[in-house]
Design brief:
Elements: H1 3-24, H2 33-53, H3 55-68, H4 70-77
Helix pairs in contact: 1-2, 1-3, 2-3
Keywords: Membrane, Transmembrane, Transmembrane helix
InterPro entries: DUF2484
Organism: Limimaricola pyoseonensis
Length: about 90
């Protein structure tokens, strides 16, 4: 693995650490600003890592990100009628 290939992996690890730290903080409402910021930074990062490291690494990083943002993914999959306001 060359030095260029380490950059997306290191950035993805930093994103995962930031997502874990953000998950530990209390959130107000359904999807806080932290959640939105993590999604908007995670998607381009995932594309960069997939392009540099290959599709297997991309799928693994996607799974890691989905486990951190699973509550928002579950709420997005629910019909609007079943959602309870917080």
């Amino acid at each position: 693995m060359s030095g260029v290939d380490v950059l997306p992996l290191a950035a993805a690890c930093l994103w995962l650490i930031a997502a874990n730290l953000a998950a530990m903080l209390p959130a107000r409402g359904r999807c806080s600003l932290r959640c939105v910021a993590l999604m908007f930074t995670g998607v381009p990062l995932l594309g960069w890592a997939t392009f540099s490291l290959g599709p297997v690494a991309g799928v693994l990083l996607l799974a890691a990100g989905a486990t951190l943002l699973r509550e928002q993914l579950v709420r997005a999959a629910q019909p609007f009628d079943d959602r309870s306001p917080e």
